[in-house]
Design goal:
By secondary structure, the chain is mainly alpha-helical. It has seven helices and two strands, in the order αααααααββ. The radius of gyration is 23 Å and the shape is globular.
């Protein structure tokens, strides 16, 4: 398996955050939750007291595999708010402390920028090649095509 440096950093960060949650690590290794759900479990409960964190994880983990990450996050935040109404403010303060702007150089940045910029006199279609201006809608997409829906069999 090959990983990018960024993805590898994400996995190391997840593992270090989950070291205090053995049930989450077990669920991850057993395939009951994927890395995205494990990250939600770790990140949403990181400001809890250890006892409360364990109790909340025990409540959500049994059906975590059947939820989307968004649904899991919503359930965790609801439980966290019930346990500690000030958790919303704590999460906001943490987000303010951690926010920032990151600038990365990329060896193909000029080529990427050229690819994203339409050529002069050309609009860009989302799903294909450029179309001349005046052919299509105001966003530069090509002429509208009728939607074909399958009929009765």
């Amino acid at each position: 398996m090959t990983l990018s440096a960024g993805k590898a950093d994400d996995l190391v960060e997840l593992a270090s955050g989950a070291h205090s949650l053995p049930r989450v690590l077990a669920a991850l290794s057993e395939g009951r939750v994927d890395p995205a759900k494990a990250r939600v479990l770790v990140e949403e409960t990181d400001l809890c007291q250890p006892e409360e964190r364990g109790r909340i994880i025990d409540l959500v983990l049994p059906d975590a595999e059947f939820r989307t990450t968004g649904s899991l996050r919503d359930q965790l935040r609801k439980l966290l708010y019930q346990a500690d109404p000030d958790s919303v403010h704590k999460r906001y303060q943490k987000a303010v402390r951690e926010r920032g702007v990151e600038l990365r150089s990329h060896r193909d940045a000029d080529r990427l920028a050229a690819r994203l910029r339409p050529a002069a006199g050309q609009g860009r279609r989302r799903d294909g090649p450029s179309v001349p201006d005046g052919e299509g809608d105001e966003a530069g997409r090509g002429p509208r095509r009728p939607v074909r829906r399958p009929g009765p069999a």
